[in-house]
Design brief:
Blueprint lengths: L1 E4 L2 E3 L19 E8 L10 E7 L1 H4 L5 E4 L5 E6 L4 E7 L8 E6 L7 E3 L3 E7 L13 E4 L14 E4 L5 E7 L4
Parallel strand pairs: 3-9
Antiparallel strand pairs: 1-2, 3-6, 4-5, 4-7, 7-8, 10-13, 11-12
Length: 175
């Protein structure tokens, strides 16, 4: 993993069997763009795209690259060339179920991330015995039948608003 400039990473092989010292060529970062859409192919403004480093970049302890879609549902992620990412597309507004791609490179990022039909779960968080709502409370929905790493990672996550209200979407099992 090579950091060319602050936040500009690349993954390049280093062959040391014939010579201990070499020059390294760091490929330029690639910008992956696309659109996040609902199951009915409507653009989702305010949806999120997240690229979590895996492989060599994960070993370098790099943080995920995140983007929020614009009014037309477009997103843009600056990713390290040659690196692998776990992609996560989701809508904090609950208009579609999260969609994951477990291992993609910058050139493999889908140009259309389609969020499938979802069940929207809504509610309000309060503390028992106190009438005041809890703002900015974190909510996660976990898989009860999953095993391994999947059992510890949320299917969906959100936070309450200033009124303690939330809306979270999970995949619709009937679809």
């Amino acid at each position: 993993v090579i950091e060319v400039a602050a936040g500009d990473f690349a993954v390049a092989p280093l062959e040391t069997t014939t010579c201990a010292a070499q020059s390294l060529a760091a490929p330029a970062a690639l910008v992956a763009t696309g659109t996040i859409e609902s199951s009915s192919h409507l653009a989702l403004a305010g949806a999120r795209a997240e690229a979590v480093p895996i492989g060599a970049l994960a070993l370098a302890n790099l943080i995920p690259v995140q983007a929020t879609s614009d009014a037309a549902g477009h997103f843009s992620l600056a990713l390290a060339a040659g690196a692998h990412y776990a992609l996560h597309f989701f809508d904090p507004g609950g208009r579609g179920a999260p969609h994951d791609y477990p291992d993609e490179t910058a050139t493999g990022v889908p140009t259309e991330a389609l969020l499938q039909a979802a069940l929207a779960i809504t509610g309000q968080v309060t503390v028992i015995g106190f009438p005041n709502p809890v703002a900015n409370a974190s909510l996660q929905i976990l898989c009860g039948s999953c095993t391994g790493v999947a059992a510890s990672q949320p299917i969906a996550a959100t936070a309450t608003d200033v009124t303690g209200s939330y809306r979270i979407a999970v995949p619709d099992p009937g679809m």
